[in-house]
Amino acid sequence: METILIIEDDKNINDMLSQLLSNNNYKVLSAFSGTEGILIHNEQVNLILLDLMLPGKNGEEIIEDLKQKYNVPVIVMSAISNIDKKLDLFNLGADDYITKPFNNKELIARIKVHLKNGKHSKSTVIKYKDIELNTSDFSVICNNKNVVLTKNEFELLKVLMTNPEQVFTKSNLFDLVWGNEDSADDNTLNVHISRIRNKLKECNPKVEYIETVWSIGYKMKK
Amino acid sequence: METILIIEDDKNINDMLSQLLSNNNYKVLSAFSGTEGILIHNEQVNLILLDLMLPGKNGEEIIEDLKQKYNVPVIVMSAISNIDKKLDLFNLGADDYITKPFNNKELIARIKVHLKNGKHSKSTVIKYKDIELNTSDFSVICNNKNVVLTKNEFELLKVLMTNPEQVFTKSNLFDLVWGNEDSADDNTLNVHISRIRNKLKECNPKVEYIETVWSIGYKMKK
DNA sequence: AGTAAAATTTAAGGAAATTTTAAGAATTGT
DNA sequence: ACAATTCTTAAAATTTCCTTAAATTTTACT
Hints:
Chain A is of the alpha/beta class and 222 residues long. Chain A has helices at 11-23, 34-40, 59-69, 83-92, 104-117, 151-162, 170-178, 186-203, and strands at 2-7, 26-31, 45-51, 74-78, 96-99, 125-128, 131-134, 139-142, 145-147, 168-169, 210-213, 217-220. In chain A, a hairpin with a 2-residue loop joins β8 (139-142) and β9. In chain A, α2 packs parallel to α3 (59-69), α6 (151-162) crosses α7 (170-178) and α6 (151-162) crosses α8 (186-203).
């Protein structure tokens, strides 16, 4: 479950948000001032909902503080829609800006987007194209169909999907998946790749997911 | 430079956006219908600005199509702010939603947020003229087009590009690329150079990149 | 201009790397 | 211990890449 920190001085709104997020299966931390927010914040927090009009430190300072230390997505909520202020906040590192009053469902939708983007997300789901790889229960979905992968196949695909731009050399992949056994036959890797490709192809014949970089290794296809 | 694909049927707005993005140092591709957008879309596109009201395929279908195949952030622009539609789009994979008319600076700010999310900051890129050679994923871009090089071709071009002023003798290049095999036919190198030249010429016929230094070797042309 | 040496291009054969297939070994669960 | 699954290995088939050789073009020099 993902944790969201609400920083909002108005008790009514804070409670309302807290309720809303709980109902949507988020764990909630509530702070009623900027300084309190910074204190409460910890490594478990996956996203921050930040009100602008705060006693004590103002929103800008809070963002600056948080972004400096942590890499957590921040969604700013505010009644005012002063465009210059908005831009300042984006410059400081805000990831989204939503003006009050907002639609609750839209807020949830935007929260989901930013949780999905980040590496900070506790979510154990790695997505790439139409593949969803859940590291907590080792399940894989491709093109809305279930894919059954063995352990090594799963690990291999996971490594490739976590950095889809990067080319992984073969020895690289051996290290990451097999754990530095140079004893293994070079072909073992190739066979595993071949099996993964076949299984994915069964779910979505139109897309090629894994690209071979000749004489180097493999990567996810763009 | 990052590339943004605009999919917007209203010519005035499309032009305006194009101008705006160009002024902010983005490379721009314009499409005037959804189907055109899908056609134009290529590996270089880093973000898509998508208008909802399109002739032919509508926005939902476009998003579905694009997200299925590529892993590119999509910002939806629309005049209507129907909340249900908004939520549908987020569900389909839209990364942001901005209602027209919007403030230009805000659009730029939101674009930056989403480009920042996806980027890997590892800069292993060697540049020379309009060639970009990425040593981490072994990709080469020339004149904004992808160039597919084999391993030896890549290594060879890399050596030349790392010291564009220097003249490399042939035995020098053999050492650096092949690893001191004096057995190899002298001509092997020439053939490789020839192939690289051809591939680069396909991307940019106007420029000659590699200069031959008669009876000595090669270097990058000034 | 003519000539020889060097460089470029082209095509083809062979070398090297990858993919696939299949079967036996190792591992896991019951 | 047995059955089932998974992993590894080996070998054949395939694909891609490299090298070689020959023909052509360019350059340097007389």
